């Protein structure tokens, strides 16, 4: 039985690894030309009951703990006028319930755990029919089970459902400060070791410490339409001018927050946020299924990577339980995944509503200190 996994993201690699641990081989097809073809994004908090559960099934939990950053669980919450509402510092001996890890390091760990040749690079999915998957370069490969692990803009998804991601009304500009401890020690001390949130009415500013010394800065605007970047006046092809425009947009904010923007380098990326409908399902179809963002794209509030990892692990375990009946395995997996992702999707939507509300800072404070 041939298992073809489309996409070498966290979910697809977790699936391949847990299958390998259970004596089942698969092939992962990835459109990028190599593992280093592009940056892999910032930090992820990997939760003990979901993402870490998947890594235990993969036999990689010790390796994960070696690269995880417990101090990345630190959090500071502020208002635009500079008022500090909440600060949480993680003790050195605290349990690793939600440690942060660089996405690139986590992906690299999964890639290194697979046999040579498992991932076939430079294979962009084009179509699938009659047990053959075809790629943009004209090549093809057979499959008995095709797994779409190809992310938010999944092309495999169209084989199962007409659902497409919809804009959430939030647009984010990603920036960054490299080597912040050396280049801007005052800002490094302000941000701290983990996450730094400043929540305002219609705008927010976030900063996240990465393991390589870089701080990623996220400027958020909401509610804004899907085409807001085109009308925002932010010239993304001119980083210096883009920073100046962002400083204008945050003109009423405390000077220390504007200093974060001014200190950023030339990485200025637009990030429109989209999601799939909460509770999305489809009729089970023999030979095809989805996992991760391809199946249940959620707001970026800390659940997406964990769900993808767990999807991959649980699909692998279902296949190992039904090695001669992929259809039964897929039905079992989808039944559990639909219920689980609907609950997490509802929770993520509520969190997204909270962090984009006019009184987001106070609502988040109430969340952190209930009662």
UniProtKB/TrEMBL annotation:
EC identifiers of the protein: 1.14.13.-
Cofactors (names): FAD
UniProt catalytic activity: a tetracycline + NADPH + O2 + H(+) = an 11a-hydroxytetracycline + NADP(+) + H2O
Keyword Oxidoreductase among UniProt keywords: yes
Entry's localization field: Cytoplasm
Enzyme category, top tier: oxidoreductase
Alphabetized UniProt keyword annotations: Cytoplasm, FAD, Flavoprotein, Monooxygenase, NADP, Nucleotide-binding, Oxidoreductase
Known partners and oligomeric status: Monomer.
Function: An FAD-requiring monooxygenase active on some tetracycline antibiotic derivatives, which leads to their inactivation. Hydroxylates carbon 11a of tetracycline and some analogs.
Note on domains (UniProt): Consists of an N-terminal FAD-binding domain with a Rossman fold and a C-terminal substrate-binding domain.
Family: Belongs to the aromatic-ring hydroxylase family. TetX subfamily.
Designated name of the protein: Flavin-dependent monooxygenase
Source species of the chain: Catenulispora acidiphila (strain DSM 44928 / JCM 14897 / NBRC 102108 / NRRL B-24433 / ID139908)
């Amino acid at each position: 039985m041939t298992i073809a996994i489309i996409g070498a993201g966290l979910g697809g690699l977790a699936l391949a690894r847990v299958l390998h641990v259970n004596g089942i081989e698969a092939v992962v097809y990835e459109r990028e030309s190599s593992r280093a073809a592009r940056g892999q994004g910032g930090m992820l908090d990997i939760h003990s009951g979901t993402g870490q559960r998947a890594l235990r099934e993969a036999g990689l939990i010790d390796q994960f703990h070696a690269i995880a950053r417990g101090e990345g669980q630190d959090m500071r919450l502020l208002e635009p006028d500079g008022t500090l509402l909440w600060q949480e510092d993680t003790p050195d001996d605290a349990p690793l319930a939600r440690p942060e890890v660089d996405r690139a390091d986590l992906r690299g760990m999964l890639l290194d755990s697979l046999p040579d040749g498992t991932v076939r690079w430079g294979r962009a999915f084009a179509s699938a029919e009659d047990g053959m998957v075809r790629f943009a370069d004209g090549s093809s490969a057979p499959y008995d089970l095709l797994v779409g692990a190809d992310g938010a803009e999944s092309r495999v998804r169209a084989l199962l459902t007409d659902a497409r991601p919809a804009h959430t009304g939030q647009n984010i500009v990603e920036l960054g400060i490299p080597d912040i401890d050396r280049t801007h020690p005052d800002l490094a001390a302000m941000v701290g070791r983990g996450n730094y949130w400043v929540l305002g009415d219609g705008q927010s500013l976030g900063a996240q410490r990465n393991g390589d010394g870089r701080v990623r800065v996220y400027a958020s605007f909401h509610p804004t339409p899907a085409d807001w970047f085109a009308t925002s006046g932010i010239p993304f092809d001119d980083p210096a001018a883009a920073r100046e425009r962002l400083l204008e947009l945050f003109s009423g904010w405390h000077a220390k927050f504007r200093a974060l923007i001014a200190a950023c380098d030339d990485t200025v990326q637009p990030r429109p946020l989209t999601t799939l409908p909460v509770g999305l399902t489809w009729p089970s179809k023999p030979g095809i299924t989805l996992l991760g963002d391809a199946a249940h794209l959620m707001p970026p509030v800390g659940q997406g990577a964990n769900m993808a990892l767990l999807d991959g692990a649980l699909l692998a375990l279902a296949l190992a339980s039904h090695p001669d009946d992929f259809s039964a395995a897929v039905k079992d997996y989808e039944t559990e995944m639909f219920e689980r992702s609907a609950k997490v999707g509802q929770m993520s939507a509520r969190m997204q509503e909270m962090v984009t509300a006019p009184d987001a800072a106070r609502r988040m404070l109430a969340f952190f200190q209930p009662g």
